[in-house]
Specification:
Strand order of the largest sheet: 6-7-8-3-9-10
Mean pLDDT: 92
Helix content: 25-40%
Order of helices and strands: EEEHEEEHHHEHEEEHH
Oligomer: single chain
Low-confidence stretches: none
Largest sheet: 6 strands, mixed
Structural class: alpha/beta
Distance between the termini: 32 Å
Number of strands: 10
Radius of gyration: 18 Å
Number of helices: 7
Strand content: 25-35%
Length: 239
């Protein structure tokens, strides 16, 4: 893909003696790209490989023209894990100041990140007293410290109500509009329509890539979930 920010060629990952990804080729461009598929299909493993924290058995992963996880990317890639990475007993601002020091970010990046995720009015609130959506935004603020060129988010909307999920997706698009490529995973198919580009994943394979409308048109489906099921059937049926 011309202008790709993430590229994998023949990516192979083995975890616990099981092949999770086997010869995966893909290219991710700018905008908001959704990585959608059922739990256990390899989404987190792929994202960890892109960030450079997953040991790979073969192939290559390139981000912004550099090997994944290499030193030139440390200030250019933001990552929010599926589990919370912030401290419940600290305030929003205290969490951000701590991570800014760990990551070597300037002090001014704290206020920028807090503002970016609309938590300025909650900056002095202790994290454990925040709502689920606000806690997710604190983790996102950590990932945004330093304004990364690529933002990788692992199921950031899991467990949130529809209103909070809508608000977070609007935030992802604002971040992308500022020039950051956003790659976000989800197992909730109705979130697919919120993406500029989709990667549909099953059992460690990308079974479709394209815009939501293009993927639906490919199989004559009215929604992405129906398209996903049709693609699974074409590939040999659900197991």
């Amino acid at each position: 893909m011309e202008g790709a920010v993430v590229t994998t060629i023949g990516l192979r990952v083995v975890r616990g003696g099981r092949v999770v990804l086997d010869g995966l080729d893909l290219a991710v461009g700018p905008g908001v790209t959704g990585l959608l598929g059922p739990s256990g299909c390899g989404k987190s493993t792929l994202l960890r490989s892109i960030v450079g924290v997953q040991r790979v058995a073969g192939g290559s992963v390139t981000v912004l023209g550099e090997p994944a996880g290499s030193a030139p990317l440390r200030d250019r890639v933001g990552y929010q894990t599926q589990s919370s990475s912030v401290y419940d007993d600290l305030t929003v601002a205290e969490n951000l100041r701590f991570f800014a020091r760990v990551l070597g970010r300037p002090a001014g990046s704290v206020d920028e990140a807090v503002s970016e995720v609309d938590l300025t009015s909650h900056r002095d609130h202790v994290v454990h007293r925040l709502s689920g959506g606000q806690r997710s935004r604190v983790g996102l603020a950590v990932a945004l410290l330093g304004r990364p060129d690529v933002l990788v988010l692992d199921e950031p909307t899991v467990g949130l109500d529809p209103v909070l999920r809508r608000d977070l997706w609007a935030l992802f698009h604002r971040v992308a509009a500022s020039g950051t490529a956003v790659l976000v995973s989800s197992h909730v198919m109705d979130e697919a329509e919120r993406c500029d580009e989709l990667l549909l994943m099953r059992e460690g394979r990308i079974i479709a890539q394209g815009t939501p409308s293009a993927i639906k048109a490919r199989v004559g489906a009215s929604d992405v979930e129906s398209a996903f099921l049709a693609l699974v059937e074409r590939a040999g049926g659900a197991r």
